[in-house]
Amino acid sequence: MAELYFSKLRPFFLPDEWILLSEVWGEDLRFEPGERIQVHGPSGRGKSTALKILFGLEDQFAGEVRCGEQSVIRAGTPPAEHLPRRRADFSAVFQEFYLFSHLTGWENLQTLPPAASSDRLGFSREQLHEFADNLNLADILDRSTEHYSPGQKQRLALLRAIARPFDWLLLDEPFSHIDEANVRTAVEVIVAALTHYRAGLFITGLSAEARIPGVRRLAI
Question: Residue 146 half-sphere exposure, CB side, CA atoms within 13 Å?
Fold first, then answer.
């Protein structure tokens, strides 16, 4: 796992005055392997956009992201070129969840593509079932996700994201639909996955309050 570098990233839609106030946009930033980053700020400042740039889902920006000395994404890169990098480096939960509503919970957990070559093993079915039980999902995994509540969908999306190895976990406001008791359990699951994979984290939120221990906070 190599360092990540942000080089003068800025979304086209943000006004100059917001760029100047940001600790993320327009900056040269280095993130160490395994580092935990919390990006916080009000709506509309580009928190989700930052993660979508990393995941290759956004191309309306200037600047680039580098992994070590290799440029891994810049504006105008064809989407097909992002696939090997996504499989090797990133796993994500976005606010849209991207679940398959016609599939059951367990079937959604099996929709991830195979991980790139790695010396790390993903969680076993038994381990995932234990996490599901902790997240109060075990009893509904055989149901179609179209019948899940928003909170259940968010927890399932988190469970799917940690099912196979990754270098960086991208979480976009991952607790927005989850009650406090389940937030505490979700944090435990996230920390267990980061430790298991020796991985780093980018997590976004409206507040600077840290849910995940050991985060470096950046105001966007």
Answer: 5
* Residue-wise pLDDT tens digits, 34-57: 999 999 999 999 999 999 999 888
138 φ, ψ (degrees, to nearest 5) = -55, -35
Domains of the chain: 4-219 (3.40.50.300)
Share of the chain residues as helix, strand and coil, in percent rounded to the nearest 5: 35, 25, 40
In DSSP terms, 29 is beta-bridged to: 6
CB neighbourhood size of 117 (10 A): 8
Between CA 63 and CA 5 the distance in angstroms is: 11
Please choose, from the candidates 5, 6, 13, the residue with its C-alpha nearest in 3D space to the C-alpha of residue 60. 13
Provide the residue type at 45 as one letter: R
This prediction has a pTM of 0.93
Residue whose structure tokens are 């599939």:
103
Q: And the tokens for 62? A: 């200037």
SS3 state of residue 31: strand
Look at the block and give the residue holding tokens 């696939």.
Answer: 83
Do 208 and 186 meet the contact criterion of CB atoms below 8 Å apart?
no
pLDDT in tens, 117-126: 556 678 999 9
